[in-house]
Amino acid sequence: SRQGYLNIRLIHSEYEELQERLEEFRNRNEQLDLLDYNKCPHSPVWTIIRQGLDYIKIAYRFVFRVVPIEINVRHASVVVKETEVQLKDESQLECGNQKKRRKILACVVGDAAMNVHFWPGRGMNSGMKAAMALARNIVRLFISNTLPAQIQVYTPLRYLDFVDYEAFMTRLRAREQQGRSLRVTSNPIDGSVENAHAFSHLNVCYEHYISTLIEKLKTTRQLLQGRREWPHRHRLVTDDEVQAASNRISANAVAQLSLANPWPTREMAGPEVLVEDYFPMDEHKLLPLPSTGAHVAATGPSRKAASSSKQDLVVSLVITLTKFSL
Ligand SMILES: Cc1cc2nc3c(=O)[nH]c(=O)nc-3n(C[C@H](O)[C@H](O)[C@H](O)COP(=O)(O)OP(=O)(O)OC[C@H]3O[C@@H](n4cnc5c(N)ncnc54)[C@H](O)[C@@H]3O)c2cc1C
Fold first, then answer.
1. For residues 280 and 127, is the Cβ–Cβ distance under 8 A?
2. How high is the ipTM of this complex?
3. Cα–Cα dist 293/278, whole Å
């Protein structure tokens, strides 16, 4: 079977309207059915979805799920933080029955550290880069500079031990959020939706909108088909097909598509932020995999050293650190 997604950009009021309509389906425990006009009438929000499907010629019967996704481009102000936790274990209570508190270091990665607009995307990529950078920061802390390299574990860890990870994440956030996601969010479509509602019923406006839309489609076609890696060379889109796609949607949909700005793809271009630039892999410091699963815990109030296998060390630290959120 083949599956696909149709993404339609909504303004906030349309998003809220869709949430309410879908909630009704959930409350009645019913399947979505775009062919049932009693359940999905010709109201504005269902019309937007049907128009999107008509535009790219997908039959309504194939749609089994509609998911509104709110785009929140947010980030944590810091990705490393020294924080205090209260020990729960009774045996760890101090003599005076005071609850003991311990300072720990918390690091966040992935969407908890920053999230992006899903169209320019790379949220998962960024999360994996963050995890790699954090792991390499940990390894760098504990591998001795002398040869042969040895693991020297010390605690407690401090914020300053992770400033390189913080710096990497600042750069990554600037690239992915400022450089890509905010290019999209700072380019709203509200104005074009309002204008489409105001003018699309006038014939003279419709003529202008449809000719603009057709020109836009032809420009996009030329751009895509001119790319060396374009995979559909055996099936080029004709002028008649461009015209037919524009003809089969409503005057309002024509106006919206004609007025809305395209995604600012060019503004998003730029070099990637690479883990390797901040945490280069030093092959001299690679250690052999351990032959036993022995795990040496190194805890306590003083910064003390112990030997451990590289594999054990990284796994146990990452689990501990990610248990806490900032
Ligand atoms: C529609 C869409 C398309 C996307 N496409 C792409 C793409 O093409 N490429 C790309 O790189 N990225 C893409 N992304 C982004 C990507 O999915 C995310 O960036 C990535 O999944 C984030 O991973 P994460 O582990 O940080 O967070 P999540 O995947 O959100 O995992 C967090 C987990 O923590 C759990 N959790 C939350 N609170 C608690 C709690 N209190 N206790 C215990 N568990 C909890 C959640 O249930 C969840 O399982 C897309 C996202 C969306 C929404």
1. no
2. 0.95
3. 31
CA-nearest residue for atom 52, ligand 1, is: 118
Q: How far is the CA of 110 from the centre of ligand 1 (A)?
A: 8
User: Residue ranges of the chain with pLDDT lower than 50?
Assistant: 294-326
**C-beta 67 within 6 A of ligand 1:** no
Nearest to 143 by CA among 314, 22, 273, 18: 314
Q: Is the CB of 211 under 6 A from ligand 1?
A: no
Using left for φ > 0, alpha for ψ between -120 and 50, and beta otherwise, residue 321 falls in alpha
What single-letter DSSP state applies at residue 151?
B
Q: Does residue 118's CB lie within 6 angstroms of at least one atom of ligand 1?
A: yes
Assigned token pair, 196: 């489409």
Q: Assess whether the C-beta atom of 297 lies below 6 angstroms from ligand 1.
A: no
pLDDT for residue 1: 58
| Distance of alpha carbon 261 from alpha carbon 184, whole angstroms | 10
Between CA 326 and CA 107 the distance in angstroms is: 8
Which value, in Å, is the radius of gyration of the alpha carbons in the chain? 28
CA of 112 to the centre of ligand 1 (A): 9
pLDDT of 89 = 65
Please tell me what DSSP assigns to residue 114.
B
Judge if the beta carbon of residue 121 lies within 6 A of ligand 1: yes
Task: Give the pLDDT score at 295.
Answer: 47
Q: What is the DSSP string of 135-157?
A: HHHHHHHHB-SSSS--B---SS-
Centroid of ligand 1 to alpha carbon of 115 (angstroms): 9
Nearest to 115 by CA among 76, 152, 86: 76
Atom of ligand 1 nearest to the CA of 127: 26
Query: What is the residue extent of each domain of the chain?
Result: 80-184+269-322
